[in-house]
Amino acid sequence: MNSIRLIRRLPTRQWRSFSRCTVLHQEIAEAINPLTIPPPEGVDKPVSPKIEKIVSEITNLNLLEVSELSQVLKKRLNLPDAPVMPMGGFAAMAAPAPQEEEEATPKAVKTSFTVKMTKFDEKQKVALIKEIKGLLEGFNLVQAKKFVESVPTVVKADISKDEAEKLKEALTKVGAVIEID
């Protein structure tokens, strides 16, 4: 009441500044309210009391009540039926014996191989260059020489096992050390 009488007695100019001060005072009071600080990493964030109450009530339900709750939530939220998982998920399932696993899943057969030259005999370098020139299409002597000197290098990739074996045999005869991946 006193503040209203004070405002009426104040000239208009002072009244405006008084109301501005009141507004600023309110804004400052709102800004001073305690800020919520996020929890540090690795620490569980605090749960609201409402959620905590719901969780504690659900944990006190027996198995039949949980089933009934699940059905009601599915209907109200229009959720599809999820496949039933054993307790603990896949970790609780007994691991099959190694023999059973091998029989159940066929092994993947590798159909594509890569021939890689890792090193070569310096004494047979010329013969190796000539062999590379003959085996690889589009290579002249200079390109074959640079190819041999850039060891380790891939000779051919994505070839069949028979072709990889033939290439390995031919290059091994002229002093190359070959790996097939």
From TrEMBL:
GO molecular function, one term: structural constituent of ribosome
GO biological process: translation
Occurrences of domain Large ribosomal subunit protein bL12 C-terminal (ranges): 113-180
InterPro entries: Ribosomal_bL12, Ribosomal_bL12_C, Ribosomal_bL12_C/ClpS-like, Ribosomal_bL12_oligo, Ribosomal_bL12_oligo_N_sf
UniProt keyword list: Ribonucleoprotein, Ribosomal protein
Large ribosomal subunit protein bL12 oligomerization domain mapped to chain residues: 50-97
Gene Ontology cellular component terms for the protein in this record: mitochondrial large ribosomal subunit
Xref: Pfam families: Ribosomal_L12 (PF00542), Ribosomal_L12_N (PF16320)
UniProt-listed Gene3D superfamilies: 3.30.1390.10, Single helix bin
Family: Belongs to the bacterial ribosomal protein bL12 family.
Protein's recorded name: 39S ribosomal protein L12, mitochondrial
Top-level taxonomy: Eukaryota, Metazoa, Ecdysozoa, Arthropoda, Hexapoda
